[in-house]
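Consider the tokenized backbone below.
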């Protein structure tokens, strides 16, 4: 007896459903494990989140293979949980494994490789391992520049990280250079009236104040405030922090009357937004 074409189609679909059912089940289990881990982390239940992140990693390896870049994402999630618990050795191991997978699969000059290098650098920076952090920050910066070009907005973060590292080392000349590079990238990519431009101006202002270069500091504090006002509006809550920072600078430089004026404006904005 011959089967019609429609009969073969039904059999084919049924076989396909039976064969793919375990895959669907794995995908569902993976999604559930990831969701549980993220929900528990959001609640601050870090230790309870770890087994779900480990389960997600195990399922991911079975589904994609241990060397797949998707597995690197799951390794990063687990590393982040250990980092948040100050279990730095465990976090380092998972971040390094993630980096290795990405380098093998994607090559050395890929945005995801740069992100992995940056995560490791941040981990070392937070532990005071500044030499190792500097080496990795520089590798990350070169990788992201090669991948995206020198003026992509994502590069500003990498410049800022290096600048913060040099500031911690009291290498203020290098810190200034990289903060300025971050500012230039943001102004080029986002225009002069963007909140992130205000953030870069603020970092430079704070650096100059620390160095006693108060004229330069005031110039950048004022520019930052005006940038935030244009980006957010004069009565936005985001303006409050800018006003308070500028007021603190004015008070520190002996201009208490001006400082009081800016603090009063900050308080007025805060009250209006609380209504």
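A designed sequence for it:
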């Amino acid at each position: 007896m011959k089967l019609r074409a429609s009969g073969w189609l039904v059999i084919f679909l049924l076989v396909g459903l039976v064969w793919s059912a375990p895959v669907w089940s794995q995908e569902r289990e993976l999604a559930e494990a990831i969701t549980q881990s993220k929900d528990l982390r959001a609640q601050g239940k870090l230790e309870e989140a770890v087994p779900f992140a480990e389960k997600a990693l195990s399922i991911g390896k079975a589904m994609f293979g241990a060397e797949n870049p998707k597995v690197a994402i799951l390794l990063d999630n687990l590393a982040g949980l250990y980092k948040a618990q100050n279990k730095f050795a465990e976090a380092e191991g998972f971040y390094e494994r993630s980096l290795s997978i990405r380098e093998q699969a994607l090559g050395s000059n890929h945005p995801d490789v740069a992100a992995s290098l940056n995560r490791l650098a941040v981990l070392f920076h937070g532990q005071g391992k500044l030499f190792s952090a500097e080496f990795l920050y520089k590798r990350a910066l070169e990788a992201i520049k090669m991948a995206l070009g020198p003026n992509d907005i994502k590069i500003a973060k990498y410049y800022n990280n290096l600048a913060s590292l040099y500031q911690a080392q009291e290498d203020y000349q290098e810190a200034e250079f990289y903060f300025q590079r971050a500012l230039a990238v943001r102004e080029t990519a986002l225009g002069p009236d963007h909140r992130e431009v205000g953030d870069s101006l603020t970092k430079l202002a704070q650096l100059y104040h620390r160095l006693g270069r108060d004229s330069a500091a005031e110039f950048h504090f004022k520019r930052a405030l005006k940038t935030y006002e244009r980006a957010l509006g004069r009565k936005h809550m985001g303006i409050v922090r800018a006003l308070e920072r500028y007021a603190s600078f004015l008070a520190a430089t002996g201009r208490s009357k001006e400082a009081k004026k800016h603090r009063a404006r900050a308080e007025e904005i805060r009250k209006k937004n609380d209504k």
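The CA atoms of residues 38 and 49 lie 7 Å apart.
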